[in-house]
Amino acid sequence: MENILRFITPKADTSFLEEDMTIRQALEKMDYYKFSVIPLVDKNGIYKGTVSEGDLLRFIKNDENFNLKTAENVRLFCVPRYRPYSNLSINSKLNEIIKLALDQNFIPLTDDRGMFIGIIKRKTILTYLYDENFTFDSKSIKN
Predict the structure, then answer these.
(1) End-to-end CA distance of the chain
(2) How far, in Å, are 82, 87, 110 from residue 115 at the CA level?
(3) 3 or 94, higher pLDDT
(4) Using CA atoms, how far apart are residues 59 and 52, in angstroms rounded to an integer?
(5) Residues linked to residue 10 through DSSP beta bridges, in sequence order
(6) Is residue 134 part of a domain?
(7) Residues 103, 123, 112, 84, CA torsion sign
(8) Is 65 a residue whose pLDDT tops 70?
(9) Between the chain's N and C termini, which has fewer beta carbons within 10 Å?
(10) Considering the domain boundaries, does residue 140 fall inside one?
(11) Is 137 exposed, middle or buried (0-12, 13-18, 19+ CB in 10 A)?
(12) For residue 3, is it within any domain?
């Protein structure tokens, strides 16, 4: 069994948002790092999902009175999330990671307490599979 810790980008090296940040702060951070999806945590570091550009755009579009002042006052926990990324536990198996990597650019990882501890990037998984000439039965990753 492969230890998935070898694939992790630790939280300290990962960009993420806190759910009490404002829409403006989120947009600025996402623009700076050129991210379209970013992990979301609470003030204690518990993983709460992801926020995407699409989530923010839908919120802005549906608010008739949205303006810069609104963007500075609305907290991310108020923004509905359309398609949050699934997360995995640090105890997950490689085939679970591969399955999620088919649909997500990264997999958020949590510890046994639900704390966000980092991400596994799709590119890291693909590089590993390529380097190892990894083969698998496609039936093992289907629903």
Answers:
(1) 21
(2) 22, 11, 5
(3) 94
(4) 11
(5) 118
(6) no
(7) negative
(8) yes
(9) C
(10) no
(11) exposed
(12) no
Taking the CA atoms of the chain, what radius of gyration do you get in angstroms?
17
Tokens 């980092």 correspond to what residue? 118
- Six token digits for residue 6: 């070898």
Report the amino acid identity of residue 119.
I
- Rounded to whole angstroms, the Cα distance separating 77 from 82 reads 13
Q: Which tokens go with 120?
A: 């596994």
Average pLDDT, the chain: 90
Domain extent for 48: 8-92+106-120
The answer to whether residue 72 sits within a structural domain is: yes
| Residue 67 confidence (pLDDT) | 83
CATH code: domain of residue 52: 3.10.580.10
